[in-house]
Amino acid sequence: xxxxxxxxxxxxxxxxxxxxxxxxxxxxxxxxxxxxxxxxxxxxxxxxxxxxxxxxxxxxxxxxxxxxxxxxxxxxxxxxxxxxxxxxxxxxxxxxxxxxxxxxxxxxxxxxxxxxxxxxxxxxxxxxxxxxxxxxxxxxxxxxxxxxxxxxxxxxxxxxxxxxxxxxxxxxxxxxxxxxxxxxxxxxxxxxxxxxxxxxxxxxxxxxxxxxxxxxxxxxxxxxxxxxxxxxxxxxxxxxxxxxxxxxxxxxxxxxxxxxxxxxxxxxxxxxxxxxxxxxxxxxxxxxxxxxxxxxxxxxxxxxxxx
Amino acid sequence: xxxxxxxxxxxxxxxxxxxxxxxxxxxxxxxxxxxxxxxxxxxxxxxxxxxxxxxxxxxxxxxxxxxxxxxxxxxxxxxxxxxxxxxxxxxxxxxxxxxxxxxxxxxxxxxxxxxxxxxxxxxxxxxxxxxxxxxxxxxxxxxxxxxxxxxxxxxxxxxxxxxxxxxxxxxxxxxxxxxxxxxxxxxxxxxxxxxxxxxxxxxxxxxxxxxxxxxxxxxxxxxxxxxxxxxxxxxxxxxxxxxxxxxxxxxxxxxxxxxxxxxxxxxxxxxxxxxxxxxxxxxxxxxxxxxxxxxxxxxxxxxxxxxxxxxxxxxxxxxxxxxxxxxxxxxxxxxxxxxxxxxxxxxxxxxxxxxxxxxxxxxxxxxxxxxxxxxxxxxxxxxxxxxxxxxxxxxxxxxxxxxxxxxxxxxxxxxxxxxxxxxxxxxxxxxxxxxxxxxxxxxxxxxxxxxxxxxxxxxxxxxxxxxxxxxxxxxxxxxxxxxxxxxxxxxxxxxxxxxxxxxxxxxxxxx
Lengths: 307, 511
What we know:
The structure holds two protein chains of two kinds. Chain A is mainly alpha-helical. Chain A is built from 14 helices and two strands. Chain A has helices spanning 2-7, 10-32, 50-53, 70-102, 106-121, 124-135, 141-147, 164-189, 193-201, 206-230, 238-243, 252-255, 258-266, 272-300, and strands spanning 43-44, 55-56. The longest helix of chain A is centred in the first third of the chain and has 33 residues, at 70-102. Chain B has helices at 2-24, 60-74, 85-98, 111-116, 127-130, 132-141, 175-180, 194-204, 223-231, 259-273, 288-293, 309-317, 333-337, 350-362, 364-372, 423-435, 452-470, 476-490, 492-510, and strands at 43-50, 76-83, 104-106, 151-152, 155-156, 159-160, 169-174, 209-212, 233-234, 245-246, 297-303, 321-327, 340-343, 380-381, 386-388, 417-418. The chains are: A mainly alpha, B alpha+beta. At the A-B interface, helix 2, helix 10 and helix 13 of A face helix 1, helix 3, helix 17 and helix 18 of B.
């Protein structure tokens, strides 16, 4: 593909380049330039000496991430939550996309699509208050209007860590699945209708069509999106893990992620060296994972690999 | 091949989308530089003040009023910046880190952090020449030892704000509810007398929550401050509480292993079990003041100086609030240097900055212009010490006011008070500055940088356990040992050792 692109005259590619220019510029300014700053992670920043003059201290800035037994908990939480988010999110998004594409009435499909995307536009702070309205110990909807009338024992949600893995997954999927389905919906819309028609003539039912045509043709899209989310597997949505559980200490065992740990650890210290170290660590792990997964995809099915 | 093409266009469309989205978030960096006037003779400094009032769109009038005073008296032109409390630390840190001009700012974090990162300039050489009046008024209002709290290794790195610093623990309660329950305030002498009051209130009005947290997220019931004052606990300048000295024995210990802490938490647990606190106090987002205003809360514990705070709180809550002192205050270093004005180490105008600070603590006009704005437009004078808003205006509708920053600006003894505040209370506060007992380690400042890894881990552990413990929401018998073993895990031992070493050194240097 690259060889072909090179042989094209500049005149033909120029409009595309111009189209891509703002985006590329954005990435250069916001993603590539700041990368020069990674060396701060290895420095003991001293304002009088300036960033470049500060002392090199090797990997010392990284040690706080592995200082306690929390290191294991937060790494486990971050990884497992993200894996579940990626897996379940993809599945639910695809299901939504398929259902939407089967809706023949355009009015309905637009209505439901808007409704499904809406949660994604709600800020985490607002969402955390919505959740609080449900789970609040005294007057929350679940305790007050469901458990109490049924005579069931009330649950103190904000101090029982065991419920939160389910709650957080539920909240995250509710919030993002609709939005995530857009790309799949678009991919399905792009599938040649004649394939379905010939399948129908051959006697394939709706389910069979989905299984044999839609899903296989969605595979490349799924792989790209999963690969991209792999890169952020060591990052977590701060709002989801800090605001939604109301920063409750009792829940740390299931809500602490690397981002919330770094925030709580460095709020008082305000040390940019240590925060740079945390960011670098997250990025490196994400980078390594993208490479690994891509290599695996390449081995199994070279057509679908990202690069 | 077909698939690949699809991917390419997908990626491209993502890039384009990204650029469209990014366009929304990049238009706010243009209005930073205004009022730049190139006058060679007049030194120009940037002064950033946190304001708890509405931030007006146009600061030019008050900036001009400030400049009229400063250019005339000290030949300094001030670029006045006003930020909300949530923005302040971020804006100042950003300016310091990016090298933007920022000369004078205040602590909204821990003083020693600024020093250990060399963010602030030493002032001891400039003070005798340019800060004479300021040192004099500090001596008069607090005592000559005040600058000890901002001195590290013989350098003075900042000037603590000059106000009533003693914040004895008060119980703040709804007086009408108390009278309804048939209890007299005279029965309250110490914290032990409170449960009887709570019980009476609860009996009279079962829907009312007798006690609540003064701050939420994280929950703070005022218990720690009560214990600090009542049992003379010196936190030795960091907020974690793992390295404190109780009394005067000079031994650094983990506060959470002490009997003082255990007993305090046990007391709160008893209150909680008796139903005096809400079930979800550890995680609630509603503080006691809001509960009181809505008529559902009765009281809370808080540190307040002077005797007049009940009036202010009554106005805020819309209820008749009264206060009763139940524990004394104890001066440790961070009680005094919590709000400290500092000069940036990158400042090119340190002389002008100190001149301005001098004025900020000693000039009645400047102090009150910063707090209340322009006379006649933003406020009216009532008498020598008191002001009020112009007819038909309030704090939200006057062009400028920063009156809620009164605890941050300059000298309280030179500030105008709002109409209705008893002037004698200011005098009482200053008297208490001198009378309140000082810790033997008053002036010791812990340098956290050798143990910052441990500090970061310990901060996490504290935020995990402390809110639940101080609100009585968990059983202290089982949780305190867990808390302490988690602290040990996080390196509390290293912090204690480092602190002990620094404290011993400091004590030796004092002799």
